[in-house]
Task: structure prediction
Amino acid sequence: MSITAGNYTFGPESGRLLVNTTRTGLGAKAGHDLTIEVTRWRGDATIDAADPANSSVTVEVDADSLEVREGTGGVKPLTSSDRAEIEKIIREKILRVQKYPTITFRSARVDGTAESFRVEGELTMVGATEPVSVQGSLSEERVQGSATIAQTRWGIRPYSALLGALKLGDEVEVRFDAGLVPKQ
Result:
């Protein structure tokens, strides 16, 4: 079954939105590469399979809803206390959710086919708006894809510890896999 033209919604009830981080620096072996899940988000898509240029997408994320799901690597396993501390740092120091509670993506242009598309748009977070390119595919009413985001483009200084010996890589990968639900 292929996707039909129309308006759709998607979110955590039909899929996942994940952020993957990497570590760098002299102390990288001490840290963890993280998989962080966005637990509160919603998307709206208008799909025109015959003319993708007429398609559009908007995604809104509750910046306070990021939860650490996995930490790989590191000298010791990631504990629940470690997860809680990382989530606090994300909320308070990185995304500053008290001042910037929402992260928003709005498409400006869609190219390609359902099997392989590219969405150019603007991502707004921590008070800054910058262009982003998303690669994806659509099949059987599921949309999948990813984008790479350099935090410094939004004025975010990648987290560091151990006097700067352990650093979060500037680029994070955002991945999504969600079912499309027709709007009623």
Summary: Residues 80-94 form the longest helix (15 residues). The helical segments are 80-94.
